[in-house]
Amino acid sequence: MEQEDITAAKELREKAEESLAKKQSRFNNELSEADIFKLVYELEVHQIELEMQNEELILARAEAVLVKDKYLELYDFAPSGYITLSKDGKILELNINAFKILGKDRSQLKNKHFALYVSKDYKIIFSRFLERVFESQSKEACEVFLENDDIPAIFVLIEGIYLGKNDSCELSLVDITQQKQIEEAIRIKNEELIKINASKDKFFGIIAHDLRSPFNGFLGLSKLMSEDMPNLKMCELQTYASKMHQSAKNLFKLLENLLEWSQLQRGLTKLHPDKYNLRKIIDDNFKFEFDLANQKEIELISNISADTEVTVDLQMINTIIRNLISNSIKFTNRGGRIEIGTVNKASEECIYIKDNGIGMDTESLENIFKLDGNVSRPGTENESSTGLGLLLCKEFIEKQGGKIWAESEPGKGSTFYFTLPE
Fold first, then answer.
1. Domain limits of the chain?
2. Tell me: the pLDDT tens digits for 232-262?
3. CA distance 276 to 312
4. Overall fold of domain 81-175
C-alpha cells in the first residue's frame, strides 16, 4: 500500500473517532449503559466495514494505475505512430513512433501544428482530411508526403477518428514509402511493357505491309521475265533486271534495319566507341548510296573538312548516316541536292544533312521520331517508307550520348541535325 493511501486512512479514522466522541458526550446522560455498549459495537462494526471498503478502493486504484501504465506502454511502443490533435491541428500528445517519423523530440513537437511537417503540395489534402474528421466524427483516411530537414521525406497513410473529449482527434501514421516506391516501379514497368508492345505492333505492321510490297514487285517482275523471256527485247530485260535489283536492295535495307532494331530492343547491341575520320565515313556512305541518288539525278555534296574526327561506334554511325541519306533521297525530287556538313558547337560535334526536297508539315515533324507516330508516307517517286530508319537513328545517337532533331517546311526541304560528344 502506498504511503499516501495509509495517511488518508489514518485521517479518516481520526475523523471517525472524533465524531464518535462527540456523540458519546451528547448521549451519555440519555442512554443506558447497555445502549452505549450496543452503540459502540455498531460504530466499531461500521468502522471496520469502512476500513475494508477503503482498502478495496486502494487496491482498485492501484489496479487502475497499473492498467493505465500498461495502456501508456502499449501506446508509446505501438508499431504505428499515434498523434492526438486539437481541432486547430496542434499536437497534444504523441507516441515514440510518431516522433521518430517526424524526426524530432516529443518536447519539440507538442503544441506545434502538424501541418508544418506536411509537404506544401499536400497541405490542402491534409487540411480537408482534418475537416472531415471533425465534421463527420467518423474514421477518415488520406495519404500525404512529409518533409523535414532532420529525416528523409516519406509518404505516410494517415487515419483519423474524432475523440469527442476536449474536441480532439486521434491520428495513426503508417510509413508507406516503400509501398509507393514499389507502385512507382510497377508503373515504370507498365510503361516499358506498353513501349515493348508498341514495338511489337510496329514490327508486325512492317512485316505485314512493308515487306509484302517489295516482295510483290520482285515476284511480279520475275514472273513476267520467266513467262515472256523469249519475247522480251534486251532493253526490256535490262529494265526488268534493274527494277528487280532495286527491289532487292530496298528489301535488303529493310531487313537490315529490322535486324538492327530487333537487336537494339533486346539489349544485344553493344557500344564500341573509337576515334574515326568523319570525312571518310561520309565518303564511304556516299558510295553506298550513290546508285540510288544517281537514279534520281540527285547531287550528294560533302562539306566536311578532311581533318574532322569523331568518337563513335563505327557500325552505329554508318547506320545513322545511311538511313539519313536514304531518307533525304526518298523525299527529294529528281535533280535535287543533298548536303552534309558540320555546325560549330563548344563541347560536341553537330552534323547536319540538308535536302531541298518536299519537306514536312508541323504534325509530321513532331512525330517522325516516335514509334507510334504513324508518319510513313511514299517518296517523291512512290518509294515505300516505314519510318523505322529514323527511329534507329534516334536510338543509336542517344545510345552514344547525342541527340537528333529536324527542321522543315512543306516545299522547302528538310534539315536533320544530330550531335556526338567529342
1. 3-76, 81-175, 270-421
2. 788 877 877 877 777 777 777 777 777 777 7
3. 7
4. Beta-Lactamase (3.30.450)
